[in-house]
Amino acid sequence: MTFSLKRINAIFIKDWKDLQRNSYILFTVALPLFFAAWIGRMGEDSPYMFSFPINLALVISGAFIQAAMVAEEKEKNTLRGLLLSPASTIEILIGKSALSVVMTILVVVLSIILLDYNVPSLPFFALSILLGILFYIAVGTILGLISRTVMETSIIGMPVLFIFGMGSMFRPMIENESILNVMDILPNEQLTFIWISLEKQNAFLHSWDHFALLLLWTFISFVVTAMIYKKRKVD
């Protein structure tokens, strides 16, 4: 079977039409923009405050939109038909992820504008966002595959939202060293550490270990996604 951009485009257009009718997703996407506008008007210059809405945009737009679109296929009993269609596994995964990627980039850019955040070292910042998007798209695909309905994705995905999207907000309230050490290796914290490091000279020297850990998280998320997708396809 040959790789077909036409089949990927067909899946993308179908998802775009579904998205326009899905008020749940459109409302969800507005949340990080609200926080970005709010923090931007507060005049805060703390990098941790800037990182919160950008991380939230990645979690909500990347993971939750992806989860909702995958779960919607299951809810409408169209996922099985898609899996059995002429489209290959890689075409289905790219097609189902394309709209989430576009929406995530759009929401992240709008969040940066609303925050009035001066992006340091654009190439490295863009690379960190790309790795973040890939990680959260994989997480969203997992959530969508294990959920039975669109609404169920918001319940199952709640720990993802609190840990990865809002974890940095709760960090100042936590005194337990063990919990803080665990938080230090999470992907959202790697993104925050990278963005803080990019403010310094020799940015990559200060952030390469965080890039490496983020890359490892992305790799693990893809492996888990592939395993669950394979199991669901067989089921």
TrEMBL record:
<keyword id="KW-0812">Transmembrane</keyword>
<feature type="transmembrane region" description="Helical">
    <location>
        <begin position="92"/>
        <end position="115"/>
    </location>
</feature>
<feature type="transmembrane region" description="Helical">
    <location>
        <begin position="121"/>
        <end position="143"/>
    </location>
</feature>
<dbReference type="Pfam" id="PF12698">
    <property type="entry name" value="ABC2_membrane_3"/>
</dbReference>
<dbReference type="InterPro" id="IPR013525">
    <property type="entry name" value="ABC2_TM"/>
</dbReference>
<feature type="transmembrane region" description="Helical">
    <location>
        <begin position="155"/>
        <end position="174"/>
    </location>
</feature>
<feature type="transmembrane region" description="Helical">
    <location>
        <begin position="211"/>
        <end position="229"/>
    </location>
</feature>
<feature type="domain" description="ABC-2 type transporter transmembrane">
    <location>
        <begin position="56"/>
        <end position="225"/>
    </location>
</feature>
<feature type="transmembrane region" description="Helical">
    <location>
        <begin position="21"/>
        <end position="40"/>
    </location>
</feature>
<feature type="transmembrane region" description="Helical">
    <location>
        <begin position="52"/>
        <end position="71"/>
    </location>
</feature>
<keyword id="KW-0472">Membrane</keyword>
<protein>
    <submittedName>
        <fullName>ABC-2 type transport system permease protein</fullName>
    </submittedName>
</protein>
<keyword id="KW-1133">Transmembrane helix</keyword>
